[in-house]
Amino acid sequence: DAGVIQSPRHEVTEMGQEVTLRCKPISGHNSLFWYRQTMMRGLELLIYFNNNVPIDDSGMPEDRFSAKMPNASFSTLKIQPSEPRDSAVYFCASSPPSTSGIKRDTGELFFGEGSRLTVL
Amino acid sequence: QKEVEQDPGPLSVPEGAIVSLNCTYSNSAFQYFMWYRQYSRKGPELLMYTYSSGNKEDGRFTAQVDKSSKYISLFIRDSQPSDSATYLCAMSLNSGYSTLTFGKGTMLLVSP
Question: How many A-B residue pairs are in contact by the CB < 8 A criterion?
Answer without folding.
Answer: 64
